[in-house]
Specification:
CATH topology of chain A: Rossmann fold
Low-confidence stretches of chain A: none
Low-confidence stretches of chain B: none
Radius of gyration of chain A: 16 Å
Oligomer: heterodimer
Distance between the termini of chain B: 27 Å
Number of strands of chain A: 7
Largest interface: A-B, 25 and 33 residues
Largest sheet of chain B: none
Strand content of chain A: 15-25%
Radius of gyration of chain B: 19 Å
Number of strands of chain B: 0
Order of helices and strands of chain B: HHHHHHHHHH
Helix content of chain B: over 70%
Mean pLDDT of chain B: 88
Number of helices of chain B: 10
Largest sheet of chain A: 5 strands, parallel
């Protein structure tokens, strides 16, 4: 296990959630669940984040914001959609302004269902996300090594 | 002490301060978590964080910013090395400020409004603590003899023979007060908070990511160890007992800072500035007058 999986910093964005999932996300950091024991920090800065936690369905007004937050995160990065609205649009799916789940705008790696998603399942989702993060980091390093060896050959 | 021994101290500082600083930061997070009724991250968490940051994609809003942060790290290391090599305390205060200035410049050179606010607050806080540090240097000069044989050099102060703590008690308390600002602990963590990560999006550090952010963290490790060294300087009597007492008091001072950090809410920059200057004036200048009267 590398240090990437020991220090997943999280960026949390509420797309258009009812705040149920957001309260549960914050509950993960309270003394009962204490996500910080896994090195999790709830950062507000996309440039320092590794995992993008998105709650709520994406709508027409904030799709650009979601995309920009995603683009500002440096690689390796992982997106975790928390709650049924972020997964598929949930009960808001057919609203005129709703595009659907977060995967309509950015690539989602882990889906955490639930309404609202429970803190246990959110932490579970983060742990799954960490595994994906680790894969992406290994891939990134492999690519770096490849390009370096290609460079030395030519 | 010979020049070679002092040089050795400087080399030991450069090599071991990041290790000690990292463990200190880890213990800080652990104790803070326990104070909040949480288990907290492992003690080596700051090391994991920095190693992860180094493995991240290199992305920066402009190259100049990275250069400034590298200068910040460089001057903090130089300041600490000069301190442990027993050089002039005034010079040390000025190079420390130079390092600080590079951090502020790094924050200013990006377009982010959050970084700008953070940089501004960093300057306010620097304004609040700077007088006290200068007064401390002057007080050491008076303590070691003033006009007849006084010295600003750390090696002369440490080898003077008497502990500075009693005649300089006011300065010591004043230094403890501004230590909260220097360590960026609540209630004076205006520019960049360790706990409220969302607050002005980490202020000064908004635009730092990956390697740049890691450099800043390592600078903090160096800086914290040097500041604790300054706390220990009050207890040096030229013998090993002074070193031991100094080290113990420095650790206790850090624990006190953690307690203050967890027990107090953030204050406005106006309060930081006012309280910093009042403490410098009353405790600092009062102590200087007392030293002059005694002499």
């Amino acid at each position: 296990m590398s240090c990437t999986s020991k220090s997943p910093w999280i960026l949390h964005y509420d797309a258009s959630s009812c705040n149920g999932c957001d309260i549960e996300v914050l509950a993960c950091l309270t003394p009962i669940y204490d996500a910080e024991r896994f090195g999790v920090i709830n950062t507000g800065d996309p440039k320092q984040a590794d995992i993008f936690l998105i709650t709520g369905a994406v709508n027409d007004q904030n799709k650009e914001v979601v995309r920009q937050l995603y683009d500002q995160m440096p690689e390796p990065k992982v997106v975790v959609a928390v709650g049924i609205c972020a997964c598929s649009g949930g009960i808001f799916r057919d609203c005129y302004n709703i595009l659907g789940g977060a995967d309509k705008v950015i690539p989602v790696d882990v889906y955490v269902p639930g309404c609202a998603a429970r803190p246990e399942s959110i932490i579970d989702g983060i742990v799954k996300g960490v595994a994906v993060l680790e894969e992406k980091r290994a891939k990134m390093e492999g690519e770096k090594r490849c390009s370096r060896s290609r460079g030395s050959r030519s | 002490m010979s020049n070679w021994t002092l040089l050795l101290f400087a080399v030991i500082f450069v090599a071991l301060a990041p290790v000690a600083g990292c463990i200190l930061a880890g213990i800080d997070r652990k104790i803070s978590a326990r104070m909040q009724g949480r288990q907290g991250p492992p003690v080596m968490q700051p090391l994991y964080d920095v190693r992860k940051l180094l493995a991240k994609e290199r992305r920066t809003s402009n190259r100049v910013q990275d250069f400034y942060v590298a200068c910040y790290l460089f001057w903090i290391v130089v300041t600490g090395a000069m301190f442990f090599a027993g050089m002039d305390l005034l010079l040390i205060v000025f190079t420390l400020t130079l390092g600080e200035t590079f951090l502020v410049l790094a924050a200013y050179c990006s377009g982010s409004p959050f970084a700008q606010v953070g940089a501004q607050r960093e300057i306010y806080v620097a304004m609040a603590y700077e007088p006290m540090i200068l007064i401390m240097a002057v007080a050491y000069y008076l303590f070691t003899g003033g006009e007849d044989g006084g010295s600003f050099a750390v090696r002369d102060i440490a080898g003077f023979g008497d502990m500075a703590i009693l005649p300089m008690l006011g300065i010591f308390l004043g230094f403890l007060f501004i230590l909260t600002m220097k360590l960026r602990k609540s209630p004076f963590d205006l520019s960049m908070s360790h706990h409220a990560h969302q607050d002005i999006v980490r202020g000064v550090a908004t635009e730092f990511s990956g390697r740049t952010y890691a450099m800043m963290e390592v600078s903090h490790w160096y800086e914290n160890i040097m500041l604790l060294g300054m706390v220990a300087l009050f207890f040096q009597n030229g013998e090993w007992t002074g070193v031991v007492i100094g080290a113990v008091v420095a650790v206790l001072a850090y624990i006190l800072e953690i307690w203050i950090d967890n027990g107090f809410a953030r204050m406005k920059w106006q309060t930081a500035l006012k309280s910093g200057w009042i403490v410098s004036l009353v405790l600092g200048m009062g102590n200087i007058i007392a030293l002059l009267v005694i002499a």
